[in-house]
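Example 3.
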Amino acid sequence: METAIEASGLVKSFGRTRALDGLDLTVRAGEVHGFLGPNGAGKSTTIRVLLGLLRASAGTVRLLEGDPWRDAVALHRRLAYVPGDVNLWPNLTGGEAIDLFGSLRGGLDKRRRSALLERFRLDPTKKARTYSKGNRQKVAVVAAFASDVDLYILDEPTSGLDPLMEAVFQDCVREVTKEGRTVLLSSHIFSEVEALCDRVSIIREGRTVESGTLAELRHLTRTAVTVETVEPVTGLADLPGVHDLDQQGTRVTFDVDTADLDGVLRHLTRFRVRSLASAPPSLEELFMRHYGDRPEDAR
Amino acid sequence: MNAFTGTARLTRLALRRDRVQLPIWILGTTVMLSVTISSVKSQFPTEAERVRILGAAVDSPALLMLRTAPTGVGLGAMTTFQAITFLAVLAGFMSTLAVVRHTRQNEETGRAEMIGATVVGRHAALTAAMVVTAVANVVLAVLLALVLIGAGEPAAGSFAFGASVGAAGLAFAAVAAVAPS
Ligand SMILES: Nc1ncnc2c1ncn2[C@@H]1O[C@H](COP(=O)(O)OP(=O)(O)O)[C@@H](O)[C@H]1O
Ligand SMILES: [Mg+2]
């Protein structure tokens, strides 16, 4: 199996809202695939289609070489799902909820379960009604990672987790991918995606706008450069890919399309570089270029 | 039977969640019946009083609409006239709430989605809700019959009484199951 998930041209409408509008998504087996987009972009809807909870009105979708709608029961033995807003049964304890999801999924690894409880510092004897949002997320995360499955589908799983627990979560993702399992991670936390993901798909209004490895996507971004030279730089504005040039004597700051970085650096060395600082392009900047806004506002 | 995979597990979950609520409903409804029996005995101890009160009732179509037609002046007939529609409505409430608790409430909170992503068939959740509600109505029917038998009524009629209340509960459950949210 080379591809874990292959969706193309997915369309899903709710009344007059077109939640998915020709969405494409390819997740290779064994990778961590980041699924990025502002709120309302269609991430959760896509995931519901992948889980066989919704049926797309058009398009094709294969998951673990099966049809998510027709083969739902068989496929669900091989995947674990964590939603972004976990709701539990108030009069069940966290441990009972974990065991319930485990048994509904066909069993879970007892040793892994207790190790995960320890790492996430979750008290499984408390009733779910006493849990905070973060603790409810932990219940679903522990239940998922304690399951022996091929594919993890995680829809903004770390909402409400503090930074320490976020780090534990990232370790868990790395561990399961070391064992060759596949992860689809929908997220709006750029640092999380940059830390974990091999490849990323960015969606907007139900369509995929970018897809590729982080390196490929970075190629589409701009790097911010500040350089001091011995002789004043000339001719920089005429080079391709240079933007927002600001020159003060021998000190120049500008943004450069990462794809044109090499040519610009060659040009600069002619003026004898004394110091150079560059801010690496972040996923966040790429995202902002697509949405023309800060992601917080876009959400 | 792919569509029903996981029904047993979800039924156990529903029973577990309802381990306080359903017994309270069932016992409460049963107690209502005992209370009615003793009040018939104490308020209308003689046949003359029973004939008088039934006569007044028969003259009021509004009252008859809310109850069944009276069938006699024995303890069983009087109790049935006084209580059966009321108990049927209680069974209906119990059943409607139980079905909603195990279907729509899960959908609204997103729990249905987490369950739906596990190894369960598409009909499992509704089937589990109906099984639990049916069990509750059967238990209720038997307890009601036992109360009537305990009051000296014939077994056949007592079970018919219990069964009709349980059947009313099931009818409400069926409506709740198919009603759009
Ligand atoms: N069940 C639904 N009924 C109506 N509209 C919906 C439903 N689910 C999602 N939508 C709409 O579809 C769009 C995509 O939503 P969603 O997939 O939840 O986005 P995301 O997870 O990326 O935030 C939004 O406009 C949302 O309002
Ligand atoms: Mg979402």
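Chain A touches chain B through 27 residues (CB under 8 Å). Residues A 14, 17, 19, 37, 39-45 surround adenosine-5'-diphosphate (ligand 1) (CB under 6 Å).
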